[in-house]
Structures are given as structure tokens and as C-alpha cells.
Amino acid sequence: MVAGSFSEEVAVAIPADRLWKVVFTNTKSDLLTKACVGFIDAVDIDGDGGPGSVTTMKANPAVPDIKVLKTRVLAKDDAARVVKTEVIEGGKVSAQLKSETAVMKVEAAGAGACVVKVTVDYERDGGLLSPEDQAKVAQGYLGLMKKVEAYLLANPNEFA
Fold first, then answer.
1. Residues with Cβ within 8 Å of residue 159, at least 6 apart in sequence
2. Which residues sit opposite 27 in a β-bridge?
């Protein structure tokens, strides 16, 4: 068993407080299905969004390598805008892993912008993930943030 870790970040042209609110605290929101049309068909959250809550995202049948992504919140700090989750069920790369946890942090980056940082820790039989597989995993997290950014910029009055 090998333990690995990697970090990535992405700039987002949405204020940190707004992004955190709509993505990480609004458990009844349909934002992800709106922002990710053709990618995510349904999102179900069992719990209040805090520790122990389980989120199930059902992918569109046209999406390769993933049908369902299920995560559990391990820790959440709304004041610091940090959430730690573990993958319970995932896609092709996640299937190679014994465990996968992610810490996502949303940091303010000037007026009307933020940076989303993700650190993924994993355990895997057979060695570390390749750089290509690390990029796929990171894109899974940060790509959602970019889709949310595009949706919120195109719909400035929604979730304001």
C-alpha cells in the first residue's frame, strides 16, 4: 500500500463568500445540475451538509468513466471556508484507490474573485498515481468549480 498526496488550485472570478455559500452550504440548491447540464443529472444530499452528510451525484449517461460519485463530509469550517470529504464511490481513477480524501479551501483573491485549492490524499496498491491520473482527479474537483463560475457569471442574479 502506497500513500500519496497532491494539490492543485484554480482562480475563480466569483467572490469567495458567494462561491462557498452556493456550493458548500446550500444543501437544497439545484446549482450543480444547472451549472453542469449534460454532466451531472442529479444531486442528493443526505444530511445538513455538515460532518457525516453524504452527497450522491449521478452523472449523465454520456459521461465516460463515471456513473455515480458519492462523498461523505468528514469536517467543515464555514468561517475558514474549508471542507474535508472522503470518496465512498467514484469513477475510473477513484476505483484504483483504497481511500481518497480531499480538502477544499476557498480563499479570497481580491475584489470579486477567489482561489479554490484542493489537496487530495490517497492510498493505493501498486504505486503512486501517474501525473495524468492525478490531473484527472484534480479536474474532477476543480472542473466543477469552473462550471459553477461560468454559470454564476452568466446568471448574476441567481444565488446572489
1. 18, 21, 22, 26, 29, 31, 152
2. none
Alpha-carbon distance of 97 to 121, in angstroms, equals: 10
CATH of domain 2-27+74-154: 3.30.530.20
- Integer Cα distance of 152 and 145 in angstroms: 10
Question: Alpha-carbon distance 157 to 111, whole Å?
Answer: 18
Residue 154, CA distances (Å) to 33, 66, 115, 147 in order = 15, 27, 19, 11
Residues 6+ apart with CB under 8 A from 79: none
Helix, strand, coil shares of the chain, percent, nearest 5, are: 25, 40, 35
For the chain, the structural domain boundaries read 2-27+74-154
Q: What is the pLDDT of residues 116-157, one digit of tens each?
A: 999 999 999 888 999 998 998 898 899 999 999 999 999 998
The model carries a pTM of 0.90
Alpha-carbon distance values, 1 to 4, 23, 123, 131, 154 (Å): 10, 33, 6, 18, 45
What does the alpha-carbon distance between residue 68 and residue 100 come to, in Å, rounded to a whole number?
Answer: 15
